[in-house]
Each structure stands twice: as C-alpha cells, then as structure tokens.
Amino acid sequence: MVDERDRHLVNFFPRLSIFDKSPLGNTPDSWRKNLFNIVNVVANQFAPSYLKEVRKGINNWVIHPDHGARHSLDVYQGARYLATQEGLKIEPNLDAYLQAGAVLHDLFQLFPTRGPKGEVLADLRIIHPEAMARTIIEVGRMVGLDWGERRDLARTVQHHDDTYKNSPYDLFSPAGKLIADADKLYGGGFERDPSELVRGTLERNKIGARGEKGWYLVREDLTPELRDNWSYGDRWYGDRVCSVRRDIFGTTFYTDSGKRIAKERREVFWLTAENFFGQEYDEMDSQRKLWYDNLNSVRVYRTSVDPKNKSAFVKEQVDTNSPVALINNLYKTHINLPRRHGSLDTAYGWMIRIEIGNKTMAIDPSVARLNSKNEFLNVVRKAFECRLFPFHSSGRFSGNVVDDS
Fold first, then answer.
1. pTM for the structure as a whole
2. Assigned CATH for 1-172+179-190
3. Any residues with CB less than 8 A from the CB of 51 and at least 6 apart, and which?
4. pLDDT tens-digit profile of 226-284?
5. What residue spans in the chain does CATH classification 1.10.3210 cover?
C-alpha cells in the first residue's frame, strides 16, 4: 500500500507540465528540455530583480554532470526500481512523487551566490535542501496542496542528505525512503550490476573533484580518525578517498532493497576500485612520461582553487628544472583557504598543469609522487583501511561498517 501522505502529488507535475506522458521513455535530452519549464515556477519565489540569476542557476543545474538533469533521471529510475523491489505498485501518485523528489532534491546546487548588484546571497550549495524545502511549500500552495501534503514532500527534500548522518528513520514517508536510497545508490548512474554501481560512484567522484582546481585523490597525512570525521563539503581539507568511503561504507539506507543492494555493492568494491584507480594511475603515468621527455619544450604551471572565488582557479608558472622536486613540494604545500572549525582545517590541492603545444594535461601530485602503480594502489588501499572500514584478508571490507544485512 502507498502511504496516504504520498497521494497529494497525483496532479502536481501534470499541472506544471514538465514531464512527458511516458516517464519510462524519457531520455536525458527530453528531461533537459522539459525541465526548463520549472524555471518560472521556482523563479516566482524570488524577487523580480533576481530573476536573471535564478534562471542562470537553473539552466546551469540542468546541464550539470554531477547534480543536473542526468543525475535526476538516474535517481528517478533508481527510485522506481527500488519501488518494484519493495513490492510497491507504481501508481500515478507514487510516480509523480518520485519525479518530484528526483528533480527538486538538488535543484539549488548550482544557484549563484550573488545578486544582480553583486550583493552576497545565501550559499545555496550548502543550504540547498532547506532552501528547496521552503520553495516546495510555496510551490505546493500554488497548485493547491494542503499543508500536510506540502510538508511531506518538503521533509523528504530537506533531509535527503541526512542519510550520510544516520538520520532518524521516521523522517521519511515510504516514498521519501525510495528517494533517499536511490540518491545514494544511483546518483552516479542507474545500473543493476553492483560493479557498475561502484564504477558510477567512482566516476562521479572523479568528476566532482574539479580537476585543476580540485582536491587530491589520496593523502597519506590523513589519519584514520580524521577520515572518520570527514564530512561532505570538506573537499580540499580531505581527499577523494574520504568521499568514496563515505558513499560506499558510511551511508544509512532505509528500504530493505536499498540495504541489500548496498551490501552487494560493498562486497565487490575493491575489485572494481582497484581497476578504476589503476587506470587513473596509468593515465597519469603516460602524461608524466610525456612531460619528462619534453622538459625543454613544455610550459608548467601550478593551479589551485582561487581562495577568493571557488568557481575560479589560480594559475602560476613554475620552474621545470626538477619535476620530481616540484611534484613533492606541491603535494606538501597547503592552499590558503580559511581555516575551518573542525578536525580537518588545512587545505591541500595544488595541481600541475602541463602545456605542450596545443595539448594540455592536469597532473595530481598525490598520484604522480608515487613511482609505480603497485605503490600507488597500496597507498589507496591503506587509506581505505581506516578504523571503521578494515579489509578482510580476502580483499573484502569488514569490521564496524554500517552493516545493513
């Protein structure tokens, strides 16, 4: 049975007319096309002077590779799949709810932080669940939902990221649990093969690391305690391993199917991750060799996120006489970002940009400083062998993980 609280969305999206009549036939392109129609609905919640910025934010979100229309479609398909695994009949009202949650849960991720006159607005990247929840309350009022109905959808969106924080189980309705689990399982792509789910998570993690203005793949200075205390948003204060281990091993799931699939994903993690990270090392190694073979004809820069504007990056030309020394020195050089009030308070992430003719390469010093793929994989493996997440001798993770079995 579908929870009675979920029946309010039967007419929600048809009134907004942002979806095709056959959701299963939707493609990423059709989603992108139809999602533009939500701009006016959301924009009406802002002052007219902010309309240009709001439209820009939504347009940026639609094409974003990490949180945009593609991600929303994956979450929607994943939520439908979990519903069938839970034995739920996907009635029109449940389908509308899943569409709503999939589209709206990350909508504010790409909104600008400054208004038309340069005034500082709220950082919606950080508070987007709460901001979107308030917007849902207003949008729901526009389409005639009563208070209880609006509140249920808003609660799901506001707390969808709390699954990383072991949030109380009773915050979500049955449909809300589907959205929460689908976001964490299928956010990197809707796949049914556990190995492909792992690869999707790793690929999304790599894309989200921001390349030349991003953070390191693996840092050896992070202790198990620091990794255990890492949280989303730390970025340059941690490394990519911190994020992956939280995704795979430190997330709470709410449906029985979500728990089962998450367990299957954990069991195949290292075999898939070893191959994925090994390919990253091979790619870096070929770039490093090209650099070393052309020392006299390359331009070398160090790049990092701009401390004054995290959407931009700093680019400074550096001496190329000793590539090894440059790699090791940059790896140990912190970025002058504001210190945080927490255990992770020193930021790192100086990258190396190599220009050879028209060819440009970005090299991560945390990878390039290691002399062989085997050495690199051992460092990565050790980074995952933290206090909460040790390995079995067989190569599987074990220990005090979030065990949903």
1. 0.77
2. 1.10.3210
3. 43
4. 887 787 778 899 999 999 988 898 888 889 999 999 999 999 999 999 999 999 999 99
5. 1-172+179-190
